[in-house]
Write a structure and sequence with these properties.
Elements: H1 4-10, H2 14-26, E1 33-35, E2 40-44, E3 49-51, E4 54-56, E5 62-69, E6 72-80, E7 84-87, E8 95-97, E9 103-105, E10 114-121, E11 127-137, H3 141-198
Parallel strand pairs: 2-11
Antiparallel strand pairs: 1-4, 3-9, 5-6, 5-10, 6-7, 8-9, 10-11
């Protein structure tokens, strides 16, 4: 049987890499089940990212996380049964492991873009693995600038509309008051004429 893990190591095309990763999820090792709830994660620079997994197996397995890039494979963290933990240089203050096998990368950068492979190994030697794709985007200051300008225009438009409505209300009030005054004067003139004619 062809080892999909070794095939993925030599694979340079992202599409083929993802297909191989999905295929290996279907070919679970006996006694070990591994689930990746979120196989593709999108984040922005400086965020904390949780690479989440769920597994079930006999006993306390060894968990290994690796970063796979065009430069090769770099070990991130290895632990067994929660007791022995080995964190690689460059990740000492950036990675936190969870008992369920998940890891959290803090303050990610563009250099963290890529594929993250988790390997779950039983005491008997059986293992399974899966991959998570992490896409990191830089914060676009053009987007921030556009958002700020858009909000400023909306606020200015709201203020102008409010002023126009208030001005319209004042005009309507003054017109009604003027009409009421004119009508009162007309009624008064009519009454005076009636009194003059009748008197």
């Amino acid at each position: 049987m062809i080892d999909l893990f070794l095939m993925r190591r030599t694979c340079t095309l992202p599409g083929v890499y993802i297909v191989l990763s999905l295929t290996e999820l279907c070919l679970q090792s006996q006694g070990i089940a591994l689930l990746i709830p979120e196989p593709v994660i999108n984040a922005t620079v400086a965020q904390n990212v949780l690479l989440s997994i769920e597994y079930s197996c006999e006993g306390k397995p060894a968990i290994t996380w690796q970063y796979v890039s065009q430069r090769g494979i770099q070990n991130i963290i290895f632990w067994k049964g929660g007791f022995y933990v080995n964190v690689s240089k460059g990740y000492e203050n950036r990675v936190h492991h969870h008992e369920n096998g998940s890891i959290e990368l803090t303050s990610v950068g563009i250099e963290d873009n890529g594929f993250y492979t988790v390997i779950v190994t039983e005491d008997a030697g059986a293992y399974t693995h899966a991959t998570i794709v992490l896409n990191i985007k830089e914060i676009s200051y053009e987007d921030v600038y556009f958002t700020v300008i858009s909000v400023a225009y909306l606020v200015a438009a709201t203020v102008l509309v409010s002023c126009f409505i208030r001005f319209s209300d004042n005009c309507v009030y003054l017109l009604r008051k003027r009409n009421a005054t004119l009508q009162a004067n007309k009624i008064e003139e009519t009454e005076l004429e009636t009194m003059v004619v009748g008197g």
